[in-house]
Amino acid sequence: MDTFARLLKESWTLVEEDRVRLTEHFYARTFLLDPELRKLFPVQMSGQGDRLLEAIIAAIHTVDDPEGFDEFLRALGRDHRKYHVDAAHYDTMGEALLDALRCTAGDGWNLAYDQAWRDAYAAIVEKMLAGAAADTNPAFWHAEVLTHERFGSDTAVFTCRALQHPLSWKAGQYVSIEAPRYHPRVWRTYSVANAPNDDNVLEFHIRTPAGAGWLSGALVRRLQPGDLLRVAAPMGSMTLDRSSERDILCVAGGVGLAPIKALLEELTSFNLTRWVHVFYGAHTKADLYGLDGLRELVAAHPWLSVTPACSDDPDFDGEQGEITDVVARYGPWTAHDCYVSGSAPMVRSTLRVLAADEVLPQRIRYDTFGNL
């Protein structure tokens, strides 16, 4: 690891356990430096700090991969067009971020850390602005809700059509969504649950358990056909490697099924030789809302198998236990391309299983967006 990356990761350990203080200080300082910036953020700021931290953590984790670091930041710049930020805004937020890092880290902070973060932030902003400048698409798409179906009390599947401009995405990617009618200026990321199509129609799977955000709650309980949403530019690299001839393992937990379903749809358009094994887990049978659709795909495509599992339903006649334990029992998966989607704990557990099978990291693509 070079000195630059080491300093960033080393300094981050000084603040990562005090994220609430870090983000509160960052936003307070930002709005003090430029009160006009407050208008770009939601009225209710709860959860907004998590978005900032996710971006910082993702940038730190990709700093050792120059190509991945570059693409991630360019995509982030394209995505941030929806907030109407400009170069001056980035300067203000950079000053606020450095101040927040210094104050949160305390005596452990030093000049080397400070300079590393200044250099890192300058590189981040340069790439984000370049990504934004190169994008010829709109800052976001208006989309009309077409269908909305509830599954139990906390899960919904809905479709919407992007209006006016074609929206191009790859199976496995995610987008940010805003519902201006319900929560203006609140954007959250959700995986697209279908492969690209000529009709400009996108499908989403949303779950809103206790403690979930306001936007997810509105999308599950209040959204209805005819509503207008805003959809930002697609992001994410959990996409198919069409050049590979290896068989495929897909592991989905809960509404983590969404990008896996999109990948399967794409595979149905060209795959003939690669075996595809899908493991789909939830707490109870009632939570396996997408199982019937998966079984229809199995009936139509002999290369596909689906293994459902429940962790808290002794009456379920399929596999019992956490989905990661079930995947481990069916391994090893050393010769497969692997795709994993679900909650962060579920993804981490699955990555440990795959590491034990000595699956090469470059053959694993994963998504931790639980659509919460």
UniProtKB/TrEMBL annotation:
<dbReference type="GO" id="GO:0051537">
    <property type="term" value="F:2 iron, 2 sulfur cluster binding"/>
</dbReference>
<dbReference type="InterPro" id="IPR017927">
    <property type="entry name" value="FAD-bd_FR_type"/>
</dbReference>
<dbReference type="GO" id="GO:0019825">
    <property type="term" value="F:oxygen binding"/>
</dbReference>
<dbReference type="InterPro" id="IPR039261">
    <property type="entry name" value="FNR_nucleotide-bd"/>
</dbReference>
<dbReference type="GO" id="GO:0005344">
    <property type="term" value="F:oxygen carrier activity"/>
</dbReference>
<protein>
    <recommendedName>
        <fullName>nitric oxide dioxygenase</fullName>
        <ecNumber>1.14.12.17</ecNumber>
    </recommendedName>
</protein>
<dbReference type="InterPro" id="IPR009050">
    <property type="entry name" value="Globin-like_sf"/>
</dbReference>
<dbReference type="InterPro" id="IPR012292">
    <property type="entry name" value="Globin/Proto"/>
</dbReference>
<dbReference type="Pfam" id="PF00175">
    <property type="entry name" value="NAD_binding_1"/>
</dbReference>
<feature type="domain" description="FAD-binding FR-type">
    <location>
        <begin position="138"/>
        <end position="241"/>
    </location>
</feature>
<dbReference type="Pfam" id="PF00042">
    <property type="entry name" value="Globin"/>
</dbReference>
<dbReference type="InterPro" id="IPR008333">
    <property type="entry name" value="Cbr1-like_FAD-bd_dom"/>
</dbReference>
<dbReference type="GO" id="GO:0008941">
    <property type="term" value="F:nitric oxide dioxygenase NAD(P)H activity"/>
</dbReference>
<keyword id="KW-0408">Iron</keyword>
<dbReference type="Pfam" id="PF00970">
    <property type="entry name" value="FAD_binding_6"/>
</dbReference>
<keyword id="KW-0411">Iron-sulfur</keyword>
<keyword id="KW-0520">NAD</keyword>
<keyword id="KW-0561">Oxygen transport</keyword>
<dbReference type="InterPro" id="IPR017938">
    <property type="entry name" value="Riboflavin_synthase-like_b-brl"/>
</dbReference>
<comment type="similarity">
    <text>In the C-terminal section; belongs to the flavoprotein pyridine nucleotide cytochrome reductase family.</text>
</comment>
<dbReference type="InterPro" id="IPR001433">
    <property type="entry name" value="OxRdtase_FAD/NAD-bd"/>
</dbReference>
<feature type="domain" description="Globin">
    <location>
        <begin position="1"/>
        <end position="133"/>
    </location>
</feature>
<dbReference type="InterPro" id="IPR050415">
    <property type="entry name" value="MRET"/>
</dbReference>
<keyword id="KW-0521">NADP</keyword>
<dbReference type="GO" id="GO:0020037">
    <property type="term" value="F:heme binding"/>
</dbReference>
<keyword id="KW-0349">Heme</keyword>
<comment type="similarity">
    <text>Belongs to the globin family.</text>
</comment>
<keyword id="KW-0479">Metal-binding</keyword>
<keyword id="KW-0001">2Fe-2S</keyword>
<keyword id="KW-0813">Transport</keyword>
<dbReference type="InterPro" id="IPR000971">
    <property type="entry name" value="Globin"/>
</dbReference>
